[in-house]
Inverse folding.
């Protein structure tokens, strides 16, 4: 089955700096890669996603890049703010109606004011 | 527009007991998946229901079972609870065949503690 590895497990940045979180996946059939933000005690919220027919997607301060050949994808957050502090999870999914998500182990991002 | 709702929010059970968790999907969604999230870990897929049938199952024992009702709501049942079943149980819903929108919407979860 699919295996997703996520790095780093913790990341501290100064407010205004950029943050990058990286994930690798094992199943070449995976074609959908969402990123979720989970604040303490709250539900995971989808912040951005990318499909395998696209190499990069951007939404304001957040961007995701995908390298299908190397089987890795990354989350980039620019101009970080204290409210960006949370746990971020990457996930991978294969095509089809089942679309089971396999999650990475998470990155605790702390933005220092 | 109501999102995914789960009940109860918190639950404490004794080892060996049985528990039922409930989920109402987001309006318009017809597929429900259940995930187990242990403390400090990413969510782990338990199973998915669509058209009232279990469509896919993760690496969980038969003690974990589920059901989907005609109104698309779902239940997760866990029998013979173990201490290791303590976790946040998340329900996620989506609409099959929605085309470009592949995203799952998660509920806030049920925090299960087994003592």
């Amino acid at each position: 089955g699919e295996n997703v590895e996520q790095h780093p497990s913790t990341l501290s940045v100064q407010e205004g700096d950029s943050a990058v979180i990286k994930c690798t996946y094992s199943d070449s059939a995976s074609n959908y890669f969402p990123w979720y933000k989970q604040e303490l005690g709250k539900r995971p919220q989808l912040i951005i996603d990318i499909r395998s027919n696209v190499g990069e997607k951007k939404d304001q301060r957040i961007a995701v890049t995908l390298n299908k050949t190397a089987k890795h994808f990354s989350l980039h957050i620019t101009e970080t703010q204290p409210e960006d502090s949370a746990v971020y999870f990457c996930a991978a999914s294969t095509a089809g109606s089942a679309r089971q998500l396999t999650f990475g182990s998470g990155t605790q991002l702390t933005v220092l004011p | 527009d109501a999102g995914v709702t789960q009940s109860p929010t918190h639950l404490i059970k004794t080892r060996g007991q049985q528990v039922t968790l409930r989920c109402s999907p987001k309006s318009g969604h017809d597929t429900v998946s259940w995930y187990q999230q242990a403390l400090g870990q990413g969510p782990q897929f338990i199973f998915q229901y669509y058209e009232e049938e279990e469509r896919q199952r993760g690496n969980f024992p038969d003690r974990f079972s589920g059901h989907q009702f005609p109104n698309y709501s779902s239940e997760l049942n866990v029998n013979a609870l173990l201490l290791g079943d303590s976790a946040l149980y998340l329900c996620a819903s989506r609409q099959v065949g929605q085309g470009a929108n592949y995203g799952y919407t998660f509920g806030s979860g049920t925090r299960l503690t087994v003592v």
Remarks:
- The mean pLDDT of chain B is 92.
- The interface with chain A takes residues 4, 31, 33, 35, 40-45, 48, 50, 55-56, 58, 90, 92, 94, 96-97, 102-109 of chain B (CB under 8 Å).
- DSSP finds no helices and eleven strands in chain B.
